[in-house]
Amino acid sequence: RVEEYFVSEASMREAILNAIVHKQYESGVPIQISVYKDKLYITNVGKLPDHWTEETLYQKHGSKSYNPNIAHVFYLAGHIESWGRGIEKIFDSCIENDLPMPKYYINPTDIMIEFDAPQRLVIDNFSKVTNRVNDTMNKILESLYDDPGYTITELANIMKMSRKSISNNIKKLKDLGIIERVGNNKKGYWKIKR
Prior knowledge:
Layout: H1 2-5, H2 9-22, E1 32-35, E2 39-45, H3 54-58, H4 68-76, H5 86-96, E3 103-106, E4 110-116, H6 119-130, H7 135-146, H8 152-159, H9 163-175, E5 179-182, E6 189-192
Antiparallel strand pairs: 1-2, 2-4, 3-4, 5-6
């Protein structure tokens, strides 16, 4: 069910097909799919065609495949259309299934699409976690649901508490197995596990 996975089958299919057709295979880096309880990311090494911007993706646009031979095979097999409606199909499916619109992140070496869970699912998951923690820990979790990239210093500023107090409560959340740190202190993020 869409409500259970928060990404429709049509959106997932089109996002993966886009990643396959537009990937720069010479990089040797595989397409990466990261699945969390409230987010799903699909990342591939690639770049926009010359003179395209992020805004071009959100508008009606033609198809400029990085791998025209792969695109042609997919077209002949009936998996894609010849004139680049993949992103439009992703957006249409999200609207049809009452799901949040995905976000694209255009980086110098890769392109990533992020699907977010509807707020109703985030709240359901959040209530299952928060009955095991104190008020401060709840507030930290609320902030991390908004932005998993917050640092301890930023959380201390937001909550108007000492860094030591935030650190202690973060440690409790980690000890309970509710959160874990992914990556380093500067460029990492907090993953809410349950």
